[in-house]
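Worked example (supplementary).
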Amino acid sequence: MLEIKGLHARIADGREILKGVDLDVKAGEVHAIMGPNGSGKSTLAGVLTGKPGYTVTQGRVLYQGSDLLTLAPDERARAGVFLAFQYPVEIPGVNNMYFLRAALNATRKQRGEAELDAGQFLKAVRAKLKLLDIGEDLLQRGVNVGFSGGEKKRNEIFQMAMLEPKLAILDETDSGLDIDALQTVAKGINALRGPDRAVLLITHYQRLLDHVVPDRVHVLSGGRIAKSGGKELALELEKSGYAAFGDAA
Amino acid sequence: MSDALSEIRPYVEAFKRRGSSGEPAWLSARREGAMKRFAELGFPSRRQEAWRFTNLQSLQKASFPPADDAAAIESSDLAPWRFPGEAHRLVLVNGRFSPELSAIGALPKGVTLASTAQTLKQRPDLLESALRETDTIGGQPFVSLNAALFEDGFVLALEAGAALDRPVEIVHFGQGGQRSCHLRNLVLLGPGSRAALIESYAGTGNYWTNAAGVIGLAKGARLAHVKLQDEGEAAIHLAQNRIVIGRDARYESFVLTLGAKLSRHDSQARLEGEGAACYLNGAFLLRGAQEATNVTFADHAAPRGTTHELFKGVADGSAHGAFLGAIAVRPQAQKTDAHMLNKNLLLSPRASIDTKPELDILADDVKCGHGATVGDLDDAALFYLESRGIPVPEARQMLIAAFAADALDRIENASLREFLDVHLQRWLAGRAS
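After joint prediction of all chains, the assembly is encoded as:
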């Protein structure tokens, strides 16, 4: 599904953040990327989804066997790559429903499927809302406008549920969530799991992994994968912290 | 000097040719005075603060004698600009009333809606008193020129307590080349009366629309006023409305500027009665080499007045927009609540927008503020939309629409808001093609 080989990337001020990341995520797997602050976790998510401000200087990324990095961000999304934002953006004046329908139809069009009309769309929306315990009123507002931190994260998961990506990248979706919201988020991720999909969970803490059990856990430190292991690695990190990986915090 | 003289000569000569047969003596005298004033003032210069941001070259380089030919316009030519709901419709073509294209319909008691020329014949008293504030003083050359040369326009007058259920729709269509249309408009709302007014300006060719309006709201009157400036792309549009708002009266306006290669809309409001409320909102969306200026002035001359202003500007291509907003609060206008905001969006590195909000406050117990911004589309918002698979042109369009729609939301009357929204969407759709 996703093959990252020797990936190096810089941010706008010229600093190199990723210094040779290697990662192989197969269809059907959930991988957790953990690591101290500043280790490059969000940069990795940004590079994979084409966020402006990063320059890849070396290495390559294959997604479903073809080069991901040459695609524009919207092309990556329509090809099935989804990013749940660490800080979802507020967009006043763009209605949440209207936005999501445009997004879904753009992807359906790409796949050669018929676009959903308002009625069909609403039906699909209601089914997912129920699953994720989200109020319908949220959809009538501007995208993320006036949403609480938890509502924003739920909205990310809701969008993911609607768009049904092949590769979902969740950038610290668990941070700042109370236990109820965390469980909703976990439910959304688990519902998406399937043999032809993969999930990359970027997180600082282990607690989300109690609810979404990963196949592999990696520690990103100093711009590289410093250690990889099974789900027990997350528990180890919970006890010992990231001190061994160069983070005092 | 010789340049300045040659610039005004076509208008002076047109005025001489015009004569004044059959008009009341007071009107002829006023036209004379106004023409003299225009000749003294000449075209404004960019050294004058009020005209600093307005490039009048295309108007000054050519002459635009008054249109004297009726254009052949079919009802279907007006279809894109017609208000879709029921309305009392008055249509003007090349500065003159077109009875064939109009559909004024039955008016409630106490309501007059007619062309200015008709009103001059039937109710000269209405115009004489309204035009008493002479156009021969002050520094508004185009209003003076209008006062000298106007042939027609529209008059909407409501007696005390009269109310219109349906909006009044005025459509002006300009056609042909190198001609000017001087429209003189009058809206007089008696005490406690209510009306909604839609003014649309459209056309084809390089004509010049020069509109001057006087709007008066007596005690407790209420006017919802929207203007769509969607003139032809080679046209010039200059307009000034002088608005006087009486005690507890409420004037709500929205000016949507989409058309013309060169345009300027000027709202000069005076809050004369205690508790007067004035809402001056608008949006200008420009592309290509369009040049547009919006000017507002709210003069608080009485206590407890309210002015709320929001203008949104969007410029693409090498277009240039300008917003000049001023609010004055006189010493007696205590408890004034005045706020003005101008936000602008530049879509191209060659586009530019100048903004100049000003407050002049001479009372001490007031709540006043202003703000202005000029920026690009929000990159974070754009990436968010892209990251959901929305193609870049569509994503940009969503953000531009959201930016402009925020201003339209200020229009309380839903049918008026929807009318302008249709034209806003049309502009956005044109952008993508």
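Two points are worth noting when inspecting this output. The longest strand of chain A covers residues 2-11. Chain A has a mean pLDDT of 89.
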